[in-house]
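Have a close read of the entry that follows and walk me through the local backbone shapes. See right below:
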Amino acid sequence: MRWAAGPLAPLMLIFLSLQILDMRYVWFDGKFVTFEKATVNVLVHSLQYGSGVFEGIRAYKARNGTAIFRLEDHVKRFFNSAKIYSMPIKFTPQQISKAIIDTVKKNGSAECYIRPFAFYTNTSLGVSNVDETSVIIATVDMGKYFKKEGGLKCKVSSWRRINSSILPPEAKGSGNYLNSLLASLEAKKAGADEAILLTFDGYVAEGPGENIFLVEDNKLVTPSKEADILLGITRDSVIKIAESMGIEVEERQVHQEELETCDEAFFTGTAAEITPIVEINGIKVGKGKPGPITKTLMQAYDDVVRGNSEEFQEWLTYV
């Protein structure tokens, strides 16, 4: 199958682990087309300048059927991202939500990763030459985003996280992730699995596509909004799940040296779910293996997304 030209290509490069051949239909401006026909002109503004906005959502094989996790929250953030970038979307949130459900049904996916993406379709070169937009929704089989068993080895990046005076970190804008790409490539060249980015002031921010949590004295610590992080929906889910279990959660500025002295650490994200971190800058995190709180939360999160927990059932939209 050939790689379709247009904005889908650079987005898929971010997720090298996705299985493109498993994709069957794409929702494209209200119609279903095969992946091969979901093409645009190679000069569209969003491909040339990274001016698209997107979301990452998961559907899970749950107790009562396929369930999309926190659909309403993801769609709300999708439209907030577009609003921050003054990007018009010609569909309502209700229409996009229905299209996401319909795409999962159409592709017959019991479990999948879902990618809504809005982009500018004009082809006249010029940064401010923007007008009409299109929206696509695709589903792909993903499985575990990080394939490494036992946890990740991370490196603190020399690249600093973008902040709100440069680009809006709270928007999932395509161009924002060039910052992430640089950090991730640097980490992998150094032999690490993933990067950790700091703020301009030297505090811990997040991973290239993940939020980060530390465990200190049986308490969860995570960077606050002031660290110019993306306010991840999985991050929010973990905070609420942890609090429901009686685990204290503290959102604050996190000093870099805490990465070296914490008892446990893990990433969170739609793709990453909850992924343990076992080494940072060559120093073992705790005992160098996933810790008890991390493992407890991993199991609790899996129970929630699969409908096996009586709590948080409202987060599931069954297809």
Residues 8-140 form a domain with the D-amino Acid Aminotransferase; Chain A, domain 1 fold (CATH 3.30.470.10). Confidence is low (pLDDT under 50) at residues 1-22. The longest helix spans residues 71-84.
